Amino acid sequence: MNDGRGLLVRVNSVDKVFHRGSEEIHVLGGLDLEIPEGEFLALMGPSGSGKSTLLNLLGGLDRPSQGSVEVGGQRIDRLSDRRLAAWRARHVGLVFQFYNLMPVLNTLQNVELPLLLTRLSRTRRREQALLALDIVGLSHRQHHFPRQLSGGEQQRAGIARAIVTDPTLLLCDEPTGDLDRKSGDEILDLLQALNREQGKTIVMVTHDLHAAARATRTLYLTKGTLTREPEA
Amino acid sequence: MRGPLNWLLQIAAVTRFNLRSLPQRKGSSATAMFGIAGVVAVMVSVLSIAHGIVRMMENSAAPGNVIVMRAGANTEMMSALMGEATDIIAEGPGIARNELGAMASPELFVVINLPMRSTGTDANVPMRGVQQQAFTVREGFRIVAGRMFEWGLNEVIVGAGAQHEFAGLELGETIEVGREAWRVVGVFEANGGIAESEIWVDAAVLQPAYRRGNSFQSVFVRLDSPQDFAAFRDALATDPRLSVKVTSEQDYYAEQSVTVYRLITVLGTLVAVIMGLGAVFGALNTMYTATASRTREIATLRALGFQAGPVVVSVLTESLLLALAGGAVGAALAWLAFDGFQAATLNWASFSAMTFTFNVSPPLLVQGIVYALLIGLVGGLFPAVRAARQPVAVALREL
C-alpha cells in the first residue's frame, strides 16, 4: 500500500458510536486505514455505512469514540475545538455534495473565504483565489453569484475554494452526487488532474462506480469496517 | 494565524455575511426591530413625564431662595402665618434687599376648581395671592401676554401652563369663584417653574374673598447668598415669637416632586419591562429563524476553520444592530411626538394640579437605546450560542 511515498493518514482502531436517546448506534468498529501521500482514494458503501462519518473523522469535523486519527504525523483527535478549527483551515480542503457556497458572496469571494483565516494581504488573497479559479476553469464566472451558476460550475467553485489554501488533504463528499453525467465527468477530470498533476491527496466518498473508477484505490465500507471488495 | 486580529477578521467576515443576507429575512427582522422601537418609544415617553416634572421643579427653585412655613407644615396648604409673623420673618438676617425693601414675599395659597381643557373634568388649580416682592423674589418672571393686574382690583394673571391646560383662562375671560368674579388680564411665565401652573392675584384682594383676615400661608425669601441659609434658619428657629419651618426652595420642590417622580418611574419601568419581555421573545424568534435558515452556511464556515466564538459574536452583532436601529427609531419617535408636550398632573403634595412639559432628555434617549441593546443582547445570545454549539458534522447534514 505504501509505495515509497510518505504516509499521510493513519486511522487506528477507530470506533464511532452515535447516541439517539438511549439507543447506541455503532457506525464504525475497530476501523484501520492508512493513506499514503498523493493517493486518490474512493470510499464506497451503502447508505448509512459510515462513509461520511469516516470522512468527517479524517477532516477533523468529528471525533472518534475510540481509537486515533493521525494526519501528517499529528493526532487530530486530541486537539481542542479551537486548535482543530485552525488545523482544518490549514490542512483540509472540503468539497460538499451540495457545494455549500455562500449565496450572498460571488464566486471570487466564496473562493477567497478560507484565505480570510490566513495572514495574506488582500491583494495576495485575491491573486490566490483567481489562481484557484483559473485551475478549475472558472475565471470568467468570478463575479457571478452561486444562483447564477450551473451545478457543475458551482461544484468547480467549491473545488476552487477547497484548494485555494493548498491543503494537505482534499476530502470530497459525493462531489458528483448532485450533477448530471457530463458535469460529473468534468468534476472527476478536475479531481484526477489535481491528483496527478499537483500530487493532491484526495479522499472521495461516492455511490457511483463510474466515479470510483477514477481513483487510484477504492475501499468499501461495510458494517463499520473497510474491505477491498464490496460485500457480496 | 492566531491571536485577536484573526478573531476580529473572522467576526468581521461572518458578520458581513449575516448582514448581507438580511434582505432575505427582512420581514422577521423588521418585526423585531419595530417591536423594540415600540418598547423604547413607550418607555422613553413615560419616563419623560417624570423627567419633565423634575425639570419643572428644578426650574422652580433658585439657589439662595427659601420658603418659610408654619412649623410642622410640609406644604403651603398645611401652613398658616399671621401678618405679624411675616413681618418678623422679613427682618431675618441675610435677606437680600432691593428698592422695595427686604426681598421677602408673604403669599396666600388657595385652590379653585376649573375644568381641564382636555377632559372637561374639574381640577384643583392653585391660586396665589401675592405682594410686589413676589415678582422680584422669583427668577425669570415675565408677562408674555396682556398686562399685569391692577393692585386692589379683582384681576388675575395666569401662568402659561395653567392657561394651556385649564378652560376659561383666556385674556378677558372671567373666573367665578364663590361670590367673586376675577378677570383674566395677563399671562406670565416663570422660568418653566411650577408657578406657571398657578393663577396670581393681589393678596390684599384674595384675603377678604376667602375670609383670611391678615394671614398668609408662606413667605418666599431671597437671601444675599446661599451660604446665609443656616444663619437665617437658626435665627428664625430661635426667635420666641415664631414657630416656623425654613426650607430651601431646592429641598422643598425636590420633596414635592418625589412622590409623583417615583410613581411614574416605577410605572414606566414596569411597563417597559413587561413590553421588553415581549420584545425579547420577538428578537429570540427572529434570531433563531435567522440562524436556523443559515445552519448550513454557519456549519460550512466552521468546517472551513472559522471558530465558534466569532460565530456567536457575529450573530449577537446582528441582533444588537437590529436592536440599535429599533432603539434609535423608538427614541426618535418619542422625541418627535412628546418632547415639549404640555400636560397637567396632580401634585401629590398639594393635591392641586401642576402643569409641566414632557422632557425627552439626551440621558433618557441614551437610556432607551441601552435598554434596546439589552433586549437585543438577550434575544441574540441564545440563538448565537445554539448556532455555535451545534456539532459541525451534524449541522452539515441539516439541509
Q: If you had to describe this structure to a student in words, what would you say it looks like?
A:
By secondary structure, chain A is α/β, with parallel strands linked by helices. In chain A, helix 4 crosses helix 5. Chain A has helices at 51-58, 81-91, 107-112, 122-135, 151-163, 181-198, 209-212, and strands spanning 7-20, 23-36, 40-44, 66-71, 74-75, 92-95, 169-173, 201-205, 217-222, 225-227. In chain A, the strands form two sheets. In chain A, strands 6-7-8-3-9-10 form a six-stranded mixed sheet. A four-stranded antiparallel sheet of chain A has the order 2-1-4-5, with helices on one face. In chain A, helix 6 links the parallel strand 7 (169-173) and strand 8 (201-205). Chain A is 32% helix and 28% strand. With 399 residues, chain B is an alpha+beta fold. Chain B has two domains: 4-58 and 256-397, no CATH class; 72-242, no CATH class. Chain B has helices spanning 4-20, 26-60, 83-89, 134-137, 160-165, 203-209, 229-237, 249-293, 295-304, 308-338, 362-389, 392-397; strands at residues 65-70, 81-82, 97-98, 101-102, 104-115, 122-130, 141-146, 155-159, 174-177, 180-190, 199-202, 215-216, 218-222, 244-248, 342-347, 352-357. In chain B, helix 2 runs antiparallel to helix 8 (249-293). The longest helix of chain B has 45 residues, at 249-293. Classes of the chains: A alpha/beta (232), B alpha+beta (399). At the A-B interface, helix 1 and helix 2 of A face helix 1, helix 9 and helix 12 of B.
Largest interface: A-B, 29 and 26 residues
On the 0 to 100 scale, the average pLDDT of chain B is 87
Q: What is the N-to-C succession of helices and strands of chain A?
A: EEEHEEHEHHHEHEHEE
Helix content of chain B: 40-55%
* Residue share in helix of chain A: 25-40%
Category by helix and strand content of chain A = alpha/beta
| CA gyration radius of chain B, whole angstroms | 30 Å
Terminal-residue CA separation of chain A: 24 Å
CATH class of chain A: Alpha Beta
Number of helices of chain B: 12
- What proportion of the residues of chain B form beta strands (DSSP E)? 15-25%
| Overall pLDDT confidence of chain A | 91
| Beta-strand content bin of chain A | 25-35%
Instruction: Please give the number of β-strands of chain A.
Output: 10
